[in-house]
């Protein structure tokens, strides 16, 4: 493989050991001190403090994203255009997205990516010479320590040293990479000091890139800052890239989010990508044959008259459902507000992973997974219901005394209002940019009223027991020790039932699956460009990730540090897609 850059000789630095200092030391156990990073459990997305912190980060990104935007400064980083071609004139290309979550899922995918060859349903697929990370390389925030433990560390363990073909890595930032204004992302992927990310070489000069591939194919990675807009330096960069395109060129665009799907709920979501294609690509006569994205944590392929739209966000994050995907979409949507939008074209959903039936079955797992995957959320529910019960019990016990009744009615009314209001705010569309409809309000109010009814039933049961008649503060202690854990578990089942019902109406779909933290059903793409220009796309699915690892007995430098005790079995969720 060759990798041609516009680097001048004085910019080159002395070579450093491939993969950094940790590659020189192979671990003797799975202890974090041996690995050099801490394997993390999946993010508990419904943990109270995480919900609050994520909400604050999202709010700050919305309010101050323009002030944190470092893309304008990247104009000074360089304007490299890369070329990736293997010695045989073709290229193997991998695509993975939404990868930096729990170790078991993230490393299972990284391990498969790093193997010299995979045999999948009879197809022998060589390790890719180019790896593209499609966004959200880390969860839940873009802290550098999170990148080390949830992204770089697992990939270091999978491919500690560059193999002879010296594969190259390119990365597109997703919304979670943007939470710190791209600071950590730029350190890791853009002109890093040693230009290595584990066994992959880095070198992209900005948070977006252009790569010339074999036989007239091009790969363009765009950064639209969570769907907001494309900055002027980025447009100027791609204007220069477009000078090298012509009618014979075929383009692959790697975008941070599948805005073609999100446009079904928010018609303006696709405007940024449509503007890019209409003003940068179309004037050259080149054809955009493939749009790639992560962000939604599953595999879905929409097929249209002239291109394929593929969502492949199964690199490690919790599974996102497929059974609510629209069967047909128009791209761009006819009701977009963009005055010069491209002509709308129909696209049909031709493949998805997991399939719709399995996705629905996963949804029912919310009853068992919610309380045990999110103990903090269950504790929060128990605390709120305990306070609500004590307020109801106080008002009920002092019903005959008008003065005490009014005294206890104030906290009761406040608790009821807080409960119903919280339930209304909790009922939200699948994405942050989605619009609220009447069903959101109806479901939210119904959910809140259901919790008030549960609290009333719990109060009736509690007053039937002798604890409330004990001297104060023993009733409060008994409520905290006995009532709280029980009602917390019962309330979590009520929330689970709400999520299952609401999900069928397209409300809280994300929470229905985020609350379960499903590690299985992961997927990535392996693509082959032949010297004659044929592009073959192999979606590679793993139905069950490994949960038990051992030190690799093969101590060769390029071998993965850890191997699964139970063999990973990759398969194709659909036959390969061939583009010419």
From TrEMBL:
The answer, when asked if Transmembrane helix is one of the entry's keywords, is yes
Q: What are the boundaries of the region Disordered?
A: 1-35, 553-580
Q: Which domain of life is it from?
A: Bacteria
Ranges of compositional bias, category Basic and acidic residues? 22-31
* Ranges of Polar residues composition bias in the record: 553-563
Q: Which residues form a coiled coil?
A: none
Asked whether the UniProt record includes Nucleus among its keywords, one would answer: no
Q: Which InterPro entries match?
A: Metallo-depent_PP-like (IPR029052)
| Keywords, sorted A to Z | Membrane, Transmembrane, Transmembrane helix
Membrane-spanning ranges = 45-68, 377-395, 407-427, 448-468, 480-501
This protein's name? Metallophosphoesterase
